[in-house]
Amino acid sequence: MEEITVNGKVFKVSESDLKMSLIDYLRDRLDLTGTKNGCNIGVCGACTVLIDGNSKRSCVVPMIKAVGKKIVTIEGMEAEDGSLHPIQQAFIDAGAIQCGFCTPGMVLSAQSLLLKNKTPSREQIKKALAGNLCRCTGYQQIIDAVEIAAELIGKEESTTTSKGGGL
Ligand code: FES
Ligand code: FES
């Protein structure tokens, strides 16, 4: 039987699961409803998740293409102790959340960017989030949030490095 890893847990995928889209599997089978369905045709980005570290629109990914991969949804972003991921905290700090519908997808697109580029320019952030639509914020606060997140993550990493450096 095929398997899929979602937020670090391995799930068996049945024949009927294989006929679904990834978004339907996540929401209907695993009850991970943080992944939002805005258009179901690959236009709005609300359904964005990470597949092996890359941001993908889960509404246009058939399960057959997702098996064997590592998926991260918004539910997988917080730390084990329940504290928010720096990107989530930065969205709050920057006032980048209004209705919140686009937020999970934005956070996952930002994570995909920051995994590859720890110090992106505003232009690079804009480009990385270009496929994620927001009807509320006007985007500026969202770009601010990703800049703040990059700083927070950089600080966290330098603290960890310096703590470990003397051991
Ligand atoms: S719900 Fe997938 S892109 Fe809109
Ligand atoms: S905060 Fe409402 S769609 Fe972005």
Helix-strand layout with pairing:
Blueprint: E1 2-6, E2 9-13, H1 22-29, E3 48-51, E4 54-57, H2 63-66, E5 70-72, H3 86-93, H4 103-116, H5 122-128, H6 140-165
Parallel strand pairs: 1-5
Antiparallel strand pairs: 1-2, 3-4, 3-5
Helix pairs in contact: 3-6
Bound molecules: FE2/S2 (inorganic) cluster (2 copies).
Describe it.
This protein is globular. A hairpin with a 2-residue loop joins strand 3 (48-51) and strand 4. The mean pLDDT is 95. Helix content is 40%, strand content 13%. It starts with a strand and ends with a helix. The protein has six helices and five strands; from the N terminus they run ββαββαβαααα. With 167 residues, the protein is α+β, with helices and mostly antiparallel strands. A five-stranded mixed beta sheet has the order 2-1-5-3-4, covered by helices on one side. The protein has two domains: 2-76, Roll (Ubiquitin-like (UB roll)); 86-161, [2Fe-2S]-binding domain (DNA polymerase, domain 1). It binds FE2/S2 (inorganic) cluster (2 copies).
